[in-house]
Amino acid sequence: MHSPIQQYLDSVHERLFDVHGGEQPKNNPSLAEADPDLCGLAMTTADGYTYTSGDAEVPFSMQSISKVFCYAIALQDRGFRYMDSKIDVEPSGSSFKDLSSEANTGRPKNPLINIGAIAATAQILPDSDGEVFDKILRIMSDCAARQLEVDEISYEADRDGGMHNRALSWFLASWGIIDGDPLPAFDDYSRQCAILTSSKDLSIMASTLTNLGVNPVTGKRVFSRSVAQRVMSVMLTCGMYDDSGDWVSSVGMPAKSGVGGGIISVLPGQLGIATYAPPLDRHGSSVRGLAAHRILSRDLELHFVRTSKAGLSTIRAHETIDHVPSTTRRPESAEAVLAEHGCRAHVLEVMGDLLFSGIEVLSREVATFGSETVCVVVDLSRADHVAEVSIKAISRLATALANVGTALALVDPFDRLDSLLVPVDMRVEIFEDRNDALTWAEDQILIEFGDDSCFPDDSIATPLMFSGLDETIRKKFVSLLKREEYETGEMVRRVGDEFDGIRFIVSGEIHTMTAEDEGGEIIAQLVAGMSFGELALNEVYNQPFDVRAAEPTVVELLSKSAIEKLEKTDPEAAALLWRAIAVEGFIRLGQIMRGVN
Amino acid sequence: MHSPIQQYLDSVHERLFDVHGGEQPKNNPSLAEADPDLCGLAMTTADGYTYTSGDAEVPFSMQSISKVFCYAIALQDRGFRYMDSKIDVEPSGSSFKDLSSEANTGRPKNPLINIGAIAATAQILPDSDGEVFDKILRIMSDCAARQLEVDEISYEADRDGGMHNRALSWFLASWGIIDGDPLPAFDDYSRQCAILTSSKDLSIMASTLTNLGVNPVTGKRVFSRSVAQRVMSVMLTCGMYDDSGDWVSSVGMPAKSGVGGGIISVLPGQLGIATYAPPLDRHGSSVRGLAAHRILSRDLELHFVRTSKAGLSTIRAHETIDHVPSTTRRPESAEAVLAEHGCRAHVLEVMGDLLFSGIEVLSREVATFGSETVCVVVDLSRADHVAEVSIKAISRLATALANVGTALALVDPFDRLDSLLVPVDMRVEIFEDRNDALTWAEDQILIEFGDDSCFPDDSIATPLMFSGLDETIRKKFVSLLKREEYETGEMVRRVGDEFDGIRFIVSGEIHTMTAEDEGGEIIAQLVAGMSFGELALNEVYNQPFDVRAAEPTVVELLSKSAIEKLEKTDPEAAALLWRAIAVEGFIRLGQIMRGVN
């Protein structure tokens, strides 16, 4: 099947041929002679996949788009405070050729106009070989995920014809923004403008910014998060010269255009977009490129007002543990305690963003719980966008709960919290598995309101399944059992095995898991007293899960042949046995159905 | 428990007392005499909940913050094209008192500087009573969710002392931006600057913008989505006067300050924030207010680069229907077909945003499916942020799939798609319930690869549970059954009922549901051949769900007493019966366990 996104991009490309007008710069032969009908589109996603349409691999000179990356390199080298002393970040409200500097200090208004970009280039520290330009080309190549080259003809034209830029360079020197001879910076600036990139290259370079400094194709970190964030902010207000306000209103993405015919735009965290079409409008931006970005922003709702978190976080479910039990098989005495006191353990499921709004909704709900509350489980399995702010907020929530004597557990199956967790005093349990968290919550209730009988021993003589039977019959069943021992990791049952009996755990731990070729995920953890193997009674699927010993484990097998023998010799006992198995099946089905809902 | 968000806001309020400096305007007695130590914070969420700290209910005059709402009213009255012909949307790069107008036309650079705001006020169409100001006050009151009033002293001071603004007004008249006498517009402008609002009011007004035009407290739509979007865009580039660039870099939220000491900022879709503290910096913005917005943006990660969708959409799970069966009980012949051909029905679960990035990831995965694919189920239960763009993209995906003969079904439990759906030719099934979608997918496979035996009749003589038994014993069991009939809606079993036997559906439909006081959600839909009542075998919980007839339904009851009688008179048959019940229980447990995982 042809990708619908690809089809869409191709349709945008086609629509651009209805867009006409614009002229090409005459003072640079590379630009003047470019085929005016060339038109390329490229989009790179946050995971490094690039869609292209049209002439997306045709190289052209970056021109002013280089300013973005040059500023990023200088910020990375020199830090924010130093760079802010050299170059402001205010929109100039004027065109790219103006002399937009502060009256008193000469500080350029922003780094995306010529005077600011030359000033930024001058701040870049050279590589160990002493060459600033080599470093610029190397880092820009890192952003593009391939080795870039320079269009020497374009470079020479800009160097030899760049009277205005020479003047700006000398002004910068006269104000002390550049120390000493400004011509090396002028030269480096002219050369970086002539770096050859295709729309595809530029979309990957843009995605390195949207991906907060990490090139999503190579995985290499090129800039720090804060540098990428600052650069995109400045692109938003200063990127489109004196069209910035209209651009923000209608397109709403940080962007930068170049007189080479390229335009990039970035959707932070999501997309890098680049276009190429040589004819320019009077502001020096590609006519078809502008149209393409407008169309993409409108069709794909990329405007920052639309893409900002919609604050849709909701408490998807709020239950107490008696209504969403774990799948752990408990003794009857424990079941009774949980039925009575389970309402003291709350289980909340949050859906949506785990940014400020998600935590806010959660905090508001938790604040309504009464003082009888023993513990709270917050299930974040369906929450997204876990950020550092979430950790701080959860820490605040945990502290507030701890102050009123309530324990907090989180369900986070994707390990997102762990990676962000700083070693603060956060009294909160984190579980990968919802069922483990529910088991924990039940344990909290049983510890507070139950007695020893609620907790089965590590080693147990009688299977839970037989606990409701009278002494004589139970002894009879126990006499049929055959002991087996398994070592850690040993496979007890395999997906597809036919029913061979029911196994009861005497001591140790058993894991029920999906088949290895389907991920080997743990589905259930079984301990002493519990049974397994009954699911294979389904003759179409047989044994549906692998079963392994998680530690040295002793089980007792009620074999299929022992059951068949019992059916013949003592049908009354057999009826009681099958009744016990049936009851066990429906107890577990009921548990999981109440839990799932 | 004290809300952690409230505690946090109080801590920010406290930190502000370490921030000093600033002066109050001398030319307006209301502003000059305000207590410099007043300090109020307020935040209103997208669902209309307001947090406040400090002097958040102290009223003060809006001053320039009114420009935001005044521009919104004019846009709403006159449309974008007309307003753009009167006022540009470019940052002025200059202070609020400058004469920032286009050289040729006099068109003000943007609506958030004085000259632009006066021009915007002049465009507002009067209410039927002929009064422009009454309309301004009415709509601003709608934004604040209460009736606002004017500070007459402040108004008179600004009206009588507003020489500069009078000059700007006459300039606008001279250029024809205002038709005829500009003084009524000047007067309306001066009065709106004197409207009294508290931080709390302003946070609700701001949230009316973030909530795309709907006041989240009252639910009233005040502005259209596009007007709210435009206004927030202009606030981002032009809201903070000549500090806009720095503001965008460091705070990254659309905002507006006023010399009354107020500042508002907006996080689209999420939060309206307002602060009040009278002393101003040299740009005319509240010193403590700026500090507060900076702290909140940093701590809560509200910068637009951070809050933009992180593009984390992922395919959480990709299975085929044989691995994630529905809970529908099928005849054995159907089970065999599904085991063989189920790999032709794909089930994808998308987690994260259903904006462009979500659809993009989905499209890319679907494009890899082979031509043998019969149908695709996309489960959107865990996807968020369903927007119009999603619908367009899903429509494209459905069309692309239809072209290769593959059917598409979506699971959307929140009816988000329905409300956005436009009547296009979208060949896609939408299910609220995942299990219904899985049933649909199985049906697609059975239609293509099964025969009649795969589909049970609407009416069935023999319960599925007995289908594996031999003729004699099956007849014996059937002879024990007692017929019952239920009308539509009639309750068959209630939560808490003790086990009274097993019921088999002969014809009709039965719904298993959560108790009415817990929402009465449907858990399972059962049809002819299936059984219910076995879950009550759990003696702690008894019957865990309500059971109702969804239409006129005939069932046959194998009563508890009939079973007990059989156990005494024919234990061999009883053993077979309990075995069949046990097998049924574990078949269903296996089904749900495979489905849940």
TrEMBL record, chains A, B:
Keywords, ordered alphabetically: Acetylation, Hydrolase
Which Gene3D superfamilies does the entry link to?
A: DD-peptidase/beta-lactamase superfamily (3.40.710.10), Jelly Rolls (2.60.120.10), STAS domain (3.30.750.24)
Q: Name one Pfam family in it.
A: cNMP_binding
> What does the record give under GO molecular function?
glutaminase activity
Q: Which SUPFAM superfamilies match?
A: beta-lactamase/transpeptidase-like, cAMP-binding domain-like
Q: Looking at the keywords, is Hydrolase present?
A: yes
EC assignment: the record states 3.5.1.2
Q: Where is the Cyclic nucleotide-binding domain?
A: 465-566
Which SMART domains is this protein grouped with?
Answer: cNMP (SM00100)
**The reaction(s) this protein catalyses:** L-glutamine + H2O = L-glutamate + NH4(+)
NCBIfam families on file = Gln_ase (TIGR03814)
Into which family does the record put it? Belongs to the glutaminase family.
Assembly and partners?
Answer: Homotetramer.
Q: What is this protein called?
A: Glutaminase
Q: What is the lineage of its organism?
A: Bacteria, Bacillati, Actinomycetota, Actinomycetes, Micrococcales
Q: Which gene encodes it?
A: glsA
